[in-house]
Every structure is written in C-alpha cells, then in structure tokens.
Write a structure and sequence with these properties.
single chain, about 190 residues
Amino acid sequence: MNAQVLAIVFQSATALIAIFVLLLWLWATARLDRFRQEMFAIRDELFDYGASGKIRFNDPAYRLLRQLMNGFIRYAHQLTFFRVCMMSLMWMTLEDKPRLEWSEKWNKAVKDIKDEEVRKDLTEFHNRVCALALQRLLTGSPILLALVFLAIVLGLCHAGLKSLKSTVSKAVTETTSKVIDARLLEEEAAKSAA
C-alpha cells in the first residue's frame, strides 16, 4: 500500500467514526430533548386546561396526571427498551408482586370526576402522555422496531392487505402491549416524580 491509499483509508475510517458518533450520541440526545419538549407541551396544555376553570389544580386526577408527566420528564433518559425489559423482568420475578398504586389512584380519581367532558379530556391527556412514552421506546430500540415491523408484515399478510392503517395500528399496539405493560411505566414515572 502506498501513502495515498493509506491516507484514503484513514480518512474513510475517520469519517465513519464521526458518522457513528453523530448518529448514536447526537441522535439520542436530540430524541431525549424532543421527548421532554413534547411532554412539557402536553403539561402546559394541562395547566391551561386547569387555569380555564374546568378542573381545580388540587383535584386528585389533575395532580396525578401532573405527577406522571413530571416523572416522565425527569425519568426520560432512563426510558429505554432495555431498561423497561429489565424492570419488567424484575417485577415478574419478585415473589411479592408490587401494587400498581398509581394506576389504582388514577382510575379512582377519574371515576370520581362528575363532569363527563372533563373525564374524557383528562383521559385524552393521559392517552397522549402514554402514546408519547411508547413512541420514545419504540423509536429508540432497533429490536422493538424490528418486532413491530415483523408484526406489521405478518398482520398485512394475514389481513390480506385489506386495511393498512388499522393493521399497522393493531400491530403496534399488540406488539408493545406484549412486551411492555404501560402501567409499569406509569408506576416508575410516578415514583420518580414523588
């Protein structure tokens, strides 16, 4: 090998390392910042909703939802597929199963809301928070993405390509629900905020 070939190899290797660092480090940081910013936006909407007088700031459902959002914001850097799998494994292997206190309190607080529209609105806020957390898990894990892609392909084959949107939605929901119990995520996020 002459000096020119060695220089090209060195430049190529340096460029590949730089691209690798950019993709793994900067992309992960950008995803984390985006997740937190979107969670802040939902939390701001919830605050505006409370400020409009539709629900009191000291209402248990409002406070629990804020606690969940704050936990996800604080806990966002730990919200990875690997950590969620390890947490789920730990919870499944414990002899004394932990109570899902946050979920129990949330369900009771929502049920106690008299106004049907407010109940629906707070449930929608909760659904948006959970969807955002699941999106973070899904887009950050090549393994989970591959599983979802496989479920979509199998679902499309099974459905005979009848309804692409419903098949994709069903595949994402079924795949993530088999791997991740959203109540565990909520419980961990609520503990982080407390």
